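Attaching the record inline, Q. Sequence:
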Amino acid sequence: MPILHHFQNISTEELRKEAEKQLQWAYAHNHISITELERRLDILNRTEGKTGILSLMEDLPLPEGNEQPHTTADFQVSEIESDSFFTLLGSNTRRGQWDVPRQLDVSAVLGSQVLDFRDARFYPETTIIKAFAFMGSIEMKFPPGVRVTSKGVPILGSIENRVQSESSGPLIHIDGFVIMGSIDAKTKKG
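Structure, as predicted:
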């Protein structure tokens, strides 16, 4: 049974953590938008009392049965393990609502890739993006509320991570390799 059902017996901080999971679950299941998630998380971080915390979730459905919010079992994209995008002498853009797999391989050879994750749904655990650019570019646009780490090898090129990471959001690791090109990750609203 989720902690929300017996909130009288837990601390305000435990309730806050459970509420954060519930809000992320609601976003992952399209019950609220990314903008609404951001708004509610901001209010959640400023709210002191248990009643105020609970009021942030009163209009949201709870996971069915004994499921906990934000688990592998209840996340709809769990069957998508990996996918890849490859561009040669061209360009590719992925935007809108889409399910991001656990592992995504992205390559741009003498071309460009633009991956817009602002309306995408991330796997609740860790997403790994393996990016390769040879005389090309890979641009990734992330919504506020995610955690992005990056590492890689740039040879006569660049790998930039300008994402404003949030400790509570989905975790995305970018592993890049660039030869005379660029990989750029940034936060972009709306």
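The longest strand covers residues 126-134. Residues 60 and 159 are 39 Å apart (CA to CA).

More tomorrow.
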